[in-house]
Amino acid sequence: MQTFQTGQKSPLAALTPATTLTLSARVTGPAAEYDLILFGLDDAGRLSDDRYMVFYNQPRSPEGALSVQAGSGAEKVFTLDLAALPASVRRLSLAVTTDQGDLSSVQAAEVTLGAGGAPLLTYRVTGRELGQEKALMLLDVYFKDVWRVGAVGQGFAGGLDALVRHFGGEVAQEGSGPPTPVPTAPAPASTSVSLVKERQRVLLEKAERTQPQLVNLIKTASVSLEKRGLGEARYRVNLVLDISASMYDEYRSGAVQALAERALALATRLDDDGEVEVYLFGIKAHRSGPLSLDNVGGFVDRLRVKLEGGTHYSPVMTLVRDDARAARTALPTLVLFITDGGSSNRDAVIRQMTEASREPVFWKFMGIDQGGVDFDFLNKLDDLRGRTVDNADFFCLPSPIRVPDAQLFELLVNELDTWQAAARRQGVLR
């Protein structure tokens, strides 16, 4: 049986071929009772159907794919039949909550994933790792190309209400049943937060005056960030673009320009100056300067890209890491890394990712699948072991890229919140 650490992930097939699983969870501590809840979420991470919130008062999903029963003592055993889940449920998230104090005093919260009566992995969190959290996400079983499992360890000081809001719902009043998914209002801003919001307002007004075609993109990006509690987060944003020869059609069609505009929309929400530092890579790595509201129109065409005959990730990763360390700011860096193929210097990239896991940089790899491309290496980076924190996420889209903007932004910020929480716990991020 494997022991997972916070942030560790694995394809489920590496643990078992089974699709019927159990999650056995137990919390020990001074509170009289701790509530264990399994959330069935859609592919955007939202509780879009409250019947898939399984807990003591709703012990079964409609078709029975998810259920809970008491185990020995305070143990709760959740049964997951992945094959019976509707296509609308793509992520299962197990969490513990308490309304008696906080979780800092628990002796341990432990969950074991099993199949066929045999334990596969265990994940354990103690109160020493927590602060004022009243709710804690423990383990996720989720579909991303294949079914995967990940140890999360993300806490919420606001308890069950904050957790359900994170999933896009709202907790009903006591006695009125399970949560009903409804839009929620943002939390009141403090003085320091209002400065961030004011800067966002200024950038949005500038976009309305100078780049009106970006306004809806900026607002859509805001929704995805707010859902993950990142509405007031601040990051430097980098855009890394593949210029290998196979990217010719993506540049010619305007797809790369469209991706640059979406990176800028994120930056207007995350970065104080609303700028994106752009890098190009093929065989070599190149700095291409900032992208901003002042120069976004025709930006990619003005780069006059000269395509190169190879794909090497490591040189451009070195540039990004060097610039992040040299930046005179305490902000972490979000790297949007766009490529249509795997790297030919894989050992060097693995070393880079392992070393970079100790740095305040999160790598979001996006693969453009033009057909017949093997993205196994990027999947490996997503699940790479031996890192201080899980500092990377990967997703793939078919070419031509026609995904709705709302879905694209969900993919671009997916796992940024969990990385941020894990990085703070490990001292990677202040």
Describe this structure in words.
- The structure is a single chain.
- The chain has 430 residues and is of the alpha/beta class.
- It contains eleven helices and 18 strands.
- The chain has helices at residues 159-166, 191-210, 215-227, 248-253, 255-270, 299-303, 313-326, 346-356, 376-382, 405-413, 416-425, and strands spanning 2-4, 9-11, 20-28, 35-41, 53-54, 66-70, 76-81, 91-97, 108-115, 118-125, 135-144, 146-156, 236-242, 276-281, 285-291, 333-339, 361-369, 392-398.
- The strands form three sheets. The chain has a six-stranded mixed sheet, with no helix packed on it. Strands 2-12-11-8-4-5 form a six-stranded antiparallel sheet. A six-stranded mixed sheet has the order 15-14-13-16-17-18, sandwiched between helices.
- A hairpin with a 3-residue loop joins strand 14 (276-281) and strand 15.
- Mean pLDDT is 87; it is low at 173-194.
How many helical stretches?
11
Across the major sheet, the strand order is 1-10-9-3-7-6
Low-confidence segments: 173-194
Distance between the termini: 34 Å
SS strand fraction: 25-35%
Radius of gyration: 22 Å
What class, by secondary structure content?
A: alpha/beta
Q: What string, H for helix and E for strand, traces the elements in order?
A: EEEEEEEEEEEEHHHEHHEEHHEHEHEHH
Query: What is the residue-averaged pLDDT?
Result: 87
Q: Which sheet architecture does the biggest sheet show?
A: 6 strands, mixed
Helix content: 25-40%
Number of strands: 18
How would you sum up the global shape? globular
